[in-house]
Design brief:
Blueprint: E1 5-12, H1 19-28, E2 33-36, H2 39-49, E3 51-57, H3 63-75, E4 82-87, H4 93-101, E5 106-109, H5 114-125, E6 140-143, E7 148-151, E8 154-156, H6 160-171, E9 177-178, H7 179-187, H8 197-209, E10 214-217, E11 221-224
Parallel strand pairs: 1-2, 1-3, 3-4, 4-5
Antiparallel strand pairs: 6-7, 7-8, 9-11, 10-11
Helix pairs in contact: 1-5, 2-3, 6-7, 6-8
Length: 227
């Protein structure tokens, strides 16, 4: 059974009512999350990041949400995450019961204060959050055991694939890793990612840790440079 991480998958439809407040609360708490209404993107996040909770903010008759929930149920033996579904009320019991059969663990109502809903999600996440015992105050540090990155004492939150990509490059400073190397060593055999995936991940890492650490070697790949 794979280990879960202290992150959240938030599946929010276009009519989502509470998701914006949940997102703001998760950001303030420094919790990694993905907010999307795309089924495939949701599954990719689940397999890449192993979130401990999946939150639905959508209508109970949302066909895409039903499709996603059925697919999530197949992964719950290997990844025992919680599925938390927000509904308008408790009146349509029969419909809600079908969601229980499809893998939903818990319902919450949207008329509950959004702060309380966000706190419930944080309570689910808390046991999976890694505790920080020491924070280096200077320089650039990758804590491989705790999956943490620090820049001048500030913790930088990276999704798992971004962290693994940064860890690979920094494992051998100045070594140029080709795109083929990166795909093989970070994504393994799951070559379902697009041609631009590496570029997008590199750009996001640079935005978070600053420019200058990762250098593009045109036509070849990328390397990590120590400052």
């Amino acid at each position: 059974m794979k280990a879960l991480n202290g992150c959240v998958l938030l599946y929010a439809s276009k009519t989502a009512q509470v998701a914006p407040q949940i997102r703001e609360s998760l950001e303030e708490a420094g919790i990694n999350f993905e907010c999307t209404s795309n089924v495939q993107k949701s599954l990719e996040y689940l397999l890449d990041e192993h979130p401990c909770v999946v939150v639905f903010d959508t209508e109970t008759d949302d066909a895409k949400a039903q499709e996603l929930c059925k697919k999530l149920k197949k992964y719950k033996e290997e990844l025992p995450f919680e599925v938390y579904f927000l509904i308008d009320d408790n009146k349509n019991f029969e419909l809600q019961w079908t969601w229980f059969n499809q893998g939903v663990d818990e319902f919450g109502t949207r008329d509950t204060n959004s702060m309380l809903i966000a706190q419930r999600i944080k309570n689910i996440v808390r046991p999976y959050k890694r505790q920080v015992t020491a924070i280096p105050q200077k320089g650039f540090v990758i804590d491989r055991e705790r999956y943490m990155v620090f820049v001048n004492g500030k913790e930088i939150v990276l999704p798992r694939k971004e962290f693994e990509l940064l860890m690979l490059l920094s494992s051998k400073p100045e070594k140029v890793f080709t795109r083929e190397d990166i795909f093989r060593l970070v994504w393994g055999n799951r070559l379902v990612v697009g041609d631009r995936t590496i570029d997008v991940h590199i750009r996001k890492i640079r935005e978070k840790i600053g420019e200058g650490f990762i250098v593009t070697v045109k036509g070849v790949g990328y390397k990590f440079v120590e400052k």
